[in-house]
Input
Amino acid sequence: MATDRTPSGRPAPRGRPPRNRRRRRQRRFPPFALAIIAIALVVGIVALIARGGDEPVASTAASEPVIPAVSEADIAAAASQLGPRDQELVNIGQTGVSINKAGGSRKYVALTFDDGPGPDTPAVLAELKKLNVPATFFVIGANIKENPDIFRQVLADGHEVGVHTWNHKDMTTLPAKEQQAEIESTAGEIISVGGVASRLFRAPYGSVDPAVLKQAEKAKLLSVLWDVDTVDWTRPSADQIVQTAVSQAQPGSIILLHDGGGDRASTIAAVPRIVKELRAKGYEFSTVGDLVISDPPGADDMSSDSRSTQQ
Ligand SMILES: [Zn+2]
Output
C-alpha cells in the first residue's frame, strides 16, 4: 500500500537521485538490496513524521500500515444486520452531512471516547459501569486487532461502537480507494471480532469533506462529530476536562473524550465527576445512536464541514 503522504499532507521523501544509484552500483550492491534500504528509509521517516501529529494517534495504528481486505462475506453480514434502528441512523447519514449534536428537545447527552481500544479502556469501562452510563466508542481497526478482548468487553458492557478508521489518517488527504479501505476494513473488523455491525463513523481529527462523507454514506454509516470538545488529548488536568464538559454541555450534546492514544489518567478521573455534575443539573446519558433517534438533529445540528480538534 502506498503511503506517499504524511498525516499533515506533506509529500513523503522520495528515493535518491540517479547519480547516487550509479555510484552505489559500482560498489556491487544488488539493486534489490538498494530498493529494500530505500523503502526502509522512507518508511522510517514517514513513521517519525507521523508521530508529530497534534491529536494523539494510537501507537499501534502508526506501526500497522497494512489494511486487511474485507471479505465479501463480512460486507454481506453487515448489510444483513441492518435492522430498523440501523436504518434510521443510515437515513440521517444519507444527506452529505455530519451530525454535531442531537436536536436538543431532551435533556440527554452522549459521552464519546475515541482512539481505543487500548490499555486505558478497561479503566474507562469500569467507571462507566459503576455509574451505569452507556457511552459510544469510536474505535481504530488496528487497535481492535491488537486488543480483541478489550473490544469485546466494550460491547459486552452494552456500549455502542463506531468506525474511527484503520490507521487514523486524515481522510481528506487520501485517494478514494484508501478512504474506502480505511472505513470498510474497520467495519469488517468490528463485525468479525465483535459480531455487530456499526452504523456510526467519526473521521480522525474531525477532518471531513464531501468525498469523505460520500464514503461514509456508501458504507451506510452516519458521520458523527461533536459540539463539546474537552481537548483531553492535550493532557489538561481532570479539573479542566470536567469544567469544559459541564459548562459547555446542553441538551443533545455529543461530548468528545479519548480512551486511547496515550495516558488517559486525567480523562479516567474526570468521567465520574462529569457524570455526577451533569446529573445534578438534570441530564441523563445515552449512546449516540439512541440520542439522535430519540431526538433527531435539526439543520443547525448538522454540517458538511470539518471540526478541528487541533488547536
Ligand atoms: Zn482520533
Summary: The chain has 13 helices and ten strands. The pocket of zinc ion is lined by residues 55, 114-115, 164, 168, 204 (CB under 6 Å). The longest helix spans residues 31-50. The longest strand covers residues 108-114.
